[in-house]
Automatic annotation (TrEMBL), chain A:
Gene3D superfamilies: Periplasmic binding protein-like II. InterPro entries: Bact_solute-bd_prot1, SBP. Pfam families: SBP_bac_8. Keywords: Signal. Residues 1-20 form the signal peptide. This is Extracellular solute-binding protein. Transmembrane segments: none annotated. It comes from Caproiciproducens galactitolivorans.
Automatic annotation (TrEMBL), chain C:
It comes from Caproiciproducens galactitolivorans. PANTHER family: ABC TRANSPORTER PERMEASE PROTEIN MG189-RELATED-RELATED, ARABINOOLIGOSACCHARIDES TRANSPORT SYSTEM PERMEASE PROTEIN ARAQ. This is Carbohydrate ABC transporter permease. Belongs to the binding-protein-dependent transport system permease family. It is a multi-pass membrane protein. The keyword Hydrolase does not apply.
């Protein structure tokens, strides 16, 4: 009997503790947030140790390392640690750290994909530093600045352009009976027409698609100045004419049999490197992946992004991906981090120009257009001045509001696209998706 | 959940405190009772702190909407959204497919292997046993990466298919084959593990029982279904429950082999919760609501399994 | 007689096929660890000469693989020791001092086995975050402590030790009590030595699950130098250009400790595991 009573006491005590701990938990987090909002001491701000997170060893990590070398010349007393991590891991860590208000172990400078930044700015105000004083708004491309501006403050230093283009195998297109000039000012109808010829004449697919990655659809709708959400951040799916047309094109490419399917980034690259597809419609940063097949040097060329002829406002320019540098405000060393960025990615044209050569960077810093490397033709791409072309095309990218939930919506869209490809009606499927996306957005608000 | 499932539990409470002297009996019982609480308290506290308190925290969060600094009480919003969220349906569906197809396949396979290996006259017995157990030493992430590599669309498996003139299977881009791949992978990893339990259980069965049955004219199948399985019932129940819980929490494999794709074709509940928190725009409140559905499902399922499995063990 | 012979041949074929299927991924892993990424992708099925190269790029990459092996080892060892200690004491307590009240507590603790870890992740993260913020350095996020703590006491292990304690002969217990030994001493001097195989089995299970733990360390550890082996492997696998030669070499290294442990303690593992379901 006694045991029973003790157990009862123990249990109710445990319950009480849990309750207290939970309310205490919320209290703690809010007080933690309050603490961290108090300005850290200036000594903290000028700490001499910086950490930078980025995710692609052949691209942005390399860029950060070059910036580190340049900065070391003028600031030998600062140690900079560049850490390469999978992008998924960086996102996971930011989500947890920002949500809990605990910045232990977070870096000073982090690279954030443009699609995601709105969410961080809106949901966690104050977490990222205001960089208005180092990012000169007249020096960077507008479409890039727009997404990192909140209440007239600029929170990031724009990095790479994701200007979309068609990488194509000149040799395969010619075998199919078309010329390089046919690839200019493409429409998707023409693209499919050429794709059918390529398939018929060479047996190769025109394009590689990944059912998990709707990059191509995002590029198509952005070419028409549209997105999954409208300018106010409201779901724009069911009545989005550009999206419907993009889906119709996507489906047509599959039913016409001009696609090859792969899953995952590396498999997609492998498909292109193994000559399984005659084109890759991607952001310009894909160049480094294409160049991995050194034996294909001279066979590749780059053309502007195809437009959708049935959608008014669709232009031969779009964007895919792209990222920017941000400073996490609560991590000691904020002023040093800002100094680092201001002397490197925010102003140093020499750095940006040499990155053009080293990592095929297409910068969104306007002054790089006159750089030496930017105007040098690329031998791999049959001596086409690709960097200059990309620079020109970047100017025409329609600016859109990426909203706060690109990847949540994308996940729903992959399901929609799959059922559309299998034969469901586009209108009905999108109506359904609209409801789901509204659910996501209302829960996020 | 009342301990019935473990037959030895049901009997002989307090059997070690038999003493003739009533007074001593009382003080001894008191003393032992105190020791009892001392022995179990640390673990009870730890589990409360690291499981139950967070669980209550998650329950509270499941009623909150908004994120970051905007979080506020949102009533049943998250739970209502569950019913319109088709990905939840998909994730539940996938998880149940893995459960209903994979767990029985694995258990039957493990049982058959065990029966075959439980034969002293079998040559190469040790080799077979080690070979089949070998997958268990790999970590979940490791073997997932190996499987991903072997079964990628132009991986070694499809290259072998091409060698013998078959067309490749789109393991990672076709929703059906992607699920098959996950099932194959889990079965590969865990069959040997379960086999170890059955094999040892069978070694504990007296050979004379089988001999008697043979005299009565029972064939191999009959011996298997009428004797081996009933005798191994507690072990089978144990492995079924642990496999069920494992499958319902499936994460590492799907995350590292297919990332839940194609188009959420292999996504599991655990992974969807992870995505909601760490891949998408974080929505911890909603993620907690999804998690609570799983808690409820797991409790119901385990109770059913124990009722079914424990009934005639009384 | 003839039918028996075919049956027996079929039996061998069946087992041989299963063994081949079980072994092939290992074979592939080891072969690939000695080949370059390009050779792995091309499906080369023979040993190559690139093992040293793969190992060197593995240990010299920015991912701190060497440090991660150390981290994983420390975490797994501490977790195993603590988990065995705490859970065996509890399992013993629940079985030897049975009472209705404690049975009830036990059943409640068992429920914790059914709560999916991902449901606890966020509150746990906040808890450790708050601990770190409260000035308790060393036990906040991003510390080995935060990875170790949630796994040192699991209902599974308590259940396991409780089931094993059932086979502990009760007359020894009474004899010891009559001799005047107090309860902790009975536990340490009489129970622990007898239950060696239970401890061995539990050690293997705990070490393996700690060594292989992925989800919680992924969330709790931010500092790249503190990451564990599965995190590094997963990061390498999801990079833009995975080098499968190097990854396979990493997997071989990640598999060695659990493999060695298992084959060293196989007998005890089986004996202990069976004790838990008897």
């Amino acid at each position: 009997m006694k045991g029973k009573r003790i157990a009862a006491v123990l249990l109710s005590a445990a319950m009480l503790v849990s309750m207290a701990a939970c309310s205490g938990g919320t209290a703690n987090t809010s007080s933690a947030a309050a603490n961290s909002q108090a300005a850290p001491s200036s000594a903290d701000n000028t700490a001499k140790k910086l950490t930078i997170w980025a995710w692609d060893d052949t691209f942005n990590v390399k860029a950060a390392n070059e910036a580190k070398e340049i900065y070391a010349k003028s600031n030998p007393d600062v140690t900079v640690n560049v850490v390469s991590m999978a992008q998924n891991d960086i996102v996971a860590k930011m989500n947890t750290a920002f949500e809990s208000g605990n910045m232990d172990g977070m870096p000073n400078i982090v690279l954030i994909e443009d699609y995601r930044i709105q969410n961080y700015l809106k949901s966690y105000p104050g977490v990222l530093s205001d960089l208005s004083d180092i990012t000169k708004t007249d020096k960077f491309m507008d479409y890039k600045l727009k997404i990192m501006t909140e209440n007239n403050k600029v929170y990031g230093v724009p990095f790479d352009s994701g200007v979309a283009c068609v990488f194509y195998r000149s040799d395969l297109i010619k075998q199919a009976g078309y010329k390089d000039s046919d690839m200019q000012s493409l429409t998707w109808d023409k693209f499919i027409e050429i794709g059918k010829a390529v398939k018929a004449k060479t047996g190769k697919a025109m394009i590689n698609v990944d059912p998990n990655d709707l990059g191509i659809i995002r590029m198509m709708i952005q070419s028409a100045g549209k997105w999954y959400v409208d300018a106010d951040g409201k779901a724009d799916i069911a009545n989005n004419a550009a999206l419907k047309e993009a889906l119709a094109i996507y489906k047509k490419m599959q039913t016409e049999g001009i696609t090859v399917t792969s899953s995952g980034w590396d498999a997609g690259v492998a498909a292109v490197n193994d000559s399984k597809a005659a084109t890759a419609v991607m952001g310009c940063w894909y160049a480094s992946s294409i160049k991995k097949a050194a034996d294909q040097s001279g066979k590749w060329a780059v053309a502007p992004f195809p437009k959708m002829s049935n959608v008014s406002g669709s232009v031969n320019s779009s964007n895919c991906g792209g990222a920017s540098w941000y400073v996490i405000d609560k991590v000691p060393g904020k002023d040093t981090a800002k100094d680092f960025l201001s002397k490197t990615f925010a102003s140093n044209t020499d750095l940006l120009d040499s990155l053009c050569k080293d990592i095929s960077l297409v910068s969104t810093y306007k002054d790089t257009a006159s750089g030496k490397n930017v105007n040098t033709p690329d031998a791999f791409f049959n001596n086409q001045p690709i960097y200059k072309d990309w620079n020109d095309w970047t100017k025409n990218i329609p600016a859109v509001n990426y909203g706060t939930s690109t990847y949540d919506i994308e996940s729903k869209m992959t399901e929609a696209v799959q059922s559309i490809v299998k034969g469901s009606s586009i209108d009905d499927t999108l109506k359904n998706t609209q409801t789901e996306v509204e659910g996501i957005l209302s829960a996020a608000g | 959940m009342n301990g019935n499932q473990f037959p030895a539990d049901g009997q002989g409470k307090n059997q070690m405190w038999k003493t003739s002297d009533k007074v001593t009996h009382h003080t001894l019982e008191k003393k032992l009772n105190r020791w009892g609480w001392i022995f179990v308290s640390l673990s009870a506290v730890l589990i409360s702190v690291f499981v139950f308190i967070p669980m209550v925290g998650a329950l509270i969060m499941s009623f909150q909407t908004g994120k970051g600094v905007n979080a506020h009480f949102g009533g049943l919003t998250n739970y209502i959204r569950l019913f319109t969220d088709q990905t939840v349906g998909k994730a539940l569906g996938n998880t149940f497919i893995y459960l209903i197809i994979q767990v029985p396949i694995m258990i039957v396979l493990a049982l058959i292997i065990s029966v075959l290996l439980n034969d002293d006259k079998l040559k190469g017995r040790t080799f077979f046993r080690i070979a089949i157990f070998l997958p268990c030493i790999t970590s979940l992430v490791s073997y997932s990466l190996i499987m991903k590599n072997i079964f990628s669309n132009d991986g070694i498996f499809n290259q072998m298919l091409a060698h013998i003139g078959l067309s490749p299977i789109l393991w990672t881009t076709d929703p059906f084959w992607a699920k098959v791949l996950i099932i194959i992978s889990i079965t590969w990893r865990w069959t040997g593990y379960n086999m170890v339990f059955y094999l040892s259980g069978m070694q504990g069965i007296e050979p004379s029982i089988y001999e008697a049955a043979e005299i009565d004219g029972a064939n191999a199948v009959k011996k298997f279904t009428h004797m081996t399985i009933p005798l191994l019932k507690p072990i089978i129940l144990f492995t079924t429950i642990t496999s069920t819980i494992g499958t319902l929490q499936l994460f590492d494999e799907v995350q590292n082999i297919t990332q839940g794709g194609p188009a959420n074709g292999t996504v599991t509940i655990s992974q969807y919760i992870y995505n909601l928190c760490f891949k998408y725009t974080p929505n911890f409140g909603y993620a907690c609501a999804v998690a609570f559905i799983v808690v409820i499902l797991i409790v119901i399922l385990s109770m059913i399994q124990m009722k079914v499995g424990g009934k005639d063990n009384q | 007689m003839k039918r028996n012979k075919t049956l027996s041949v079929l039996k061998y074929i069946f087992l041989a096929v299963l063994s081949a299927v079980s072994i092939f991924p290992f074979f592939w892993m080891i072969i690939s660890a000695t080949n370059t990424a390009a050779e792995v992708n091309a499906g080369k099925l023979t040993f190559g000469a690139h093992l040293a190269e793969n190992l060197s790029s593995l240990f010299h990459s920015d991912l701190h693989f060497g440090a991660s092996v150390g981290n994983s080892m420390i975490i797994a060892l501490i977790t195993t020791v603590l988990a065995l200690l705490i859970s065996s004491v509890a399992g013993y307590g629940f079985e030897i001092f049975r009472s209705k009240a404690r049975d009830r507590v036990f059943n409640i603790l068992l429920l914790s086995m059914m709560i999916p870890f991902c449901a606890l992740m966020i509150p746990l993260y906040r808890m450790f975050g708050a601990a770190g913020k409260a000035g308790l350095t060393g036990i906040g996020l991003n510390t080995l402590f935060s990875v170790i703590m949630p796994s040192i006491c699991t209902a599974f292990l308590i259940f396991f030790f409780r089931q094993n304690a059932k086979s502990f002969p009760k007359d020894i217990l009474e004899a010891a009590r009559i001799d005047g030994l107090n309860e902790p001493r009975i536990f340490i001097h009489m129970y622990v030595p007898v239950m060696k195989s239970s401890y061995a089995a539990a050690a293997i299970v705990t070490f393996m699950s700690s060594w292989n733990n992925y989800l919680w360390p992924l969330v709790a550890l931010q500092d790249p130098q503190k990451r564990t082996v599965p995190l590094i492997l997963s990061a390498m696998g999801s990079s833009y250009t995975p080098d499968y030669g190097m990854i396979m070499a990493g997997i071989v290294i990640a598999t060695l400790p659990t493999g060695i442990l298992f084959f060293m303690m196989q007998k005890q593992f089986v004996a202990g595991m069976i004790g838990s379901v008897k």
